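Run log // design_07
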């Protein structure tokens, strides 16, 4: 069902704890056979649509908790799965990111996309229109990984998995903040 670049290291833990798998895979969204990062980002977007979640304090707390529990959870799943990625992820990495990564970041781990998407939407006016634009901006930034996001991938123990998406979320948030005045003047009633 899942293609892999390199499967798990036979010497690594075969089964991370269930809690780590639930967190790292975004309630198992990461086990979908394709576009796991996109579906992880969509899950983050749906969570932000729950009334009250988009409040900057609430979203900020969720973001910090997501990062703090995401790092060890992502590390545990990455140890078990190694460099296993979907064919789409392999093609995107080859096209936009060049060489292989020394630190495993399997496609099943999507907590990084969830947290990165929340970073994208932090301090953005609550609007479905802006959330959708933020979603696309984040996906582009996550795929192309401009520096220093690509450098951050090298950090060990789950930090690299998480921090490159936090950086992508910061880029997407900045772009979205810059677009808001333009969108307000050109797209009447959108938000």
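design_07 sequence
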């Amino acid at each position: 069902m899942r293609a892999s670049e390199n499967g798990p290291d036979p010497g690594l833990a075969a089964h991370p704890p269930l809690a780590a798998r639930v967190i790292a895979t975004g309630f198992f969204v990461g086990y979908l056979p394709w576009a796991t990062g996109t579906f992880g980002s969509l899950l983050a977007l749906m969570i932000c649509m729950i009334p009250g979640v988009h409040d900057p304090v609430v979203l900020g707390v969720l973001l910090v908790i997501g990062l703090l529990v995401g790092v060890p959870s992502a590390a545990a799943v990455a140890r078990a799965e190694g460099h296993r990625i979907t064919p789409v992820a392999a093609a995107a990495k080859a096209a936009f990111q060049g060489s292989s990564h020394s630190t495993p970041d399997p496609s099943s781990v999507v907590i990084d996309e969830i947290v990165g998407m929340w970073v994208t939407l932090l301090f953005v006016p609550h609007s479905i229109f802006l959330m959708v634009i933020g979603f696309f901006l984040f996906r582009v930034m996550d795929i192309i990984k401009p520096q220093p996001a690509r450098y951050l991938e090298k950090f060990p123990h789950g930090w690299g998995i998480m921090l490159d998406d936090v950086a992508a979320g910061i880029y997407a948030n900045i772009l979205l903040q810059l677009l808001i005045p333009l969108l307000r003047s050109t797209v009447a009633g959108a938000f």
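Residues 159-186 form the longest helix (28 residues).
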